[in-house]
Amino acid sequence: MPTTQNPRLAGLACIRCDRRYEVADHPTGCPACLAQGRPMNLECVYTPGDSTGVDQPYLRPITLGEGRTPLLTDVPGAVPGLDVALKWEGANPTGSHKDRFSAVVVSRAVHAGYEGIVAASSGNAGVSLATYCGRAGLRCEIAVTDDTPARVVELMRDLGAEVVSFPHSEQRWKHVAAYRDSRTMLPVTNFVVPPVGSSPFGIEGYKLVAEEILADRAGRAPEWVVVPASRGDLAWGVHLGFRELLGADAAPRICLVEPFPRVAAVLAGADEYATFPGDTRAMPSLGGNQLAVQALEAVRRSRGHAVAVDDESVLAETRRLWRAGLPLEPSSAAGLLAVSRALADGTMTPESDVVVVATAHGLKGM
Ligand SMILES: Cc1ncc(COP(=O)(O)O)c(C=O)c1O
Ligand SMILES: [Zn+2]
C-alpha cells in the first residue's frame, strides 16, 4: 500500500536539548539525552511551507476514517456546574484516540519497509494497532500483562495480532526492547526506564485533535483542554498541534489527568525522573510509576495544571456517566471528574471555557 512521506519532513529534534537527527526511528528517544540517563522524546521537524493545517509526516496515510470526531457541546450533566465540550474520541474506528496514532505509525512502518510492528499495550493501543496492521498487511505483535481482560486479548487475536503475555509491565517492555535494532519489526511504544513516550511519528497524528477543535469553534481556542494521561503521548501531541496553529503563547492550557500524582508531584517540587508511588486498577490505561517528560512539558509549556483522581471516585463517576448516556471507559471518565475537582479547588470556574478529550468508548469493557 503506497504511502508518501511529506517532502517537508526535515528530520527529528529532541524536545529538550534541541539536537537534530535525520528522519529515522529512534524508539529510545534522543540518543544524547539517553546517554546522560535522561530519556527524552523527539519530535518531527518540517521545513516551512504554506499549509493551512498542521503538518503530517505521511501524505497518503493508511486510514480507516479516523479523526474528524464530533465536538459535543451542550451535554447536560457531563460535569455538574460547568458547560464543557467533549471531543468524542470514542467515535474513532476502534473506539479510541489511539487510531490517530496507529494510522500514522503504521504508515511510517510501511514507508520504512518493516514487516510489522511490536508494541506493549493492554488495551486500546493494542486493539487499534492490530486493526491498522491488518489493513496495511503488516504483522502485529502485542505484549500484554496477564491481568489484561480475556475479551481484550481475544479481540486483538481475532484482529490478527500475535499476543504475548507477561506477569509484569516491565517484562513486556523487555520483550519489546529485544526488537530495538530489528530491521523487520518496528517497536512503536516505549520500552525504556524511565519512559520516553511512543513514536514521534504516531504522536503527530494527535496534532489533528487540536486542529479539529479549532475548526469546530471557528478558530477560537478554549481556555483549557483536559487530557487523561499515562505517558502523555496525547497531551503532548495536542499541545504540539495548538502550538503549530496558534503559537506557544496562545496555546490552551493543558489540564493533565492522572491516577495518582506524577506530573502534579513534579509541579510541587519532585524530581522529574523520580518513581512516584501509587497504583490503579480502575484506570489501567493511565498507569505507570514514572513520568515521560513530554507529559510534564505539555503542562509546563501551556501554563497548565495536573489533577490526580482516585479509583473509587472514578468508578462512581463512570457509573453516573453511563447512566447519563455517556459510556466512557473509566480512564476516560477520569477527565470529567478532573474538571469537577478543578472547579471545586478554584482552578476552573463555572465560566471557564473547557474542552475535555473523551479518549475512549467504554464498550471494550476495560
Ligand atoms: C482511554 C485512554 N485515555 C488516555 C490514554 C493516555 O495515554 P498517553 O498518556 O500515553 O497518551 C490512554 C492510553 O492508553 C487511554 O487508553
Ligand atoms: Zn536530547
UniProtKB/TrEMBL annotation:
Q: Mind telling me which Pfam families this protein's record contains?
A: PALP (PF00291)
Report which superkingdom the organism of origin falls in: Bacteria
GO BP annotations of the record are: alpha-amino acid metabolic process
Q: Which keywords label this protein?
A: Pyridoxal phosphate
Q: Keyword check for Glycoprotein, yes or no.
A: no
Q: Which cofactor is essential here?
A: pyridoxal 5'-phosphate
**Which Gene3D superfamilies does the record match to this protein?**
3.40.50.1100
Task: Give residue ranges for domain Tryptophan synthase beta chain-like PALP.
Answer: 62-359
Record-linked PANTHER family: CYSTATHIONINE BETA-SYNTHASE
Q: Quote the protein name from its UniProt record.
A: L-threonine synthase
What species is given as this protein's source? Micromonospora echinospora
Its taxonomic path starts at: Bacteria, Bacillati, Actinomycetota, Actinomycetes, Micromonosporales
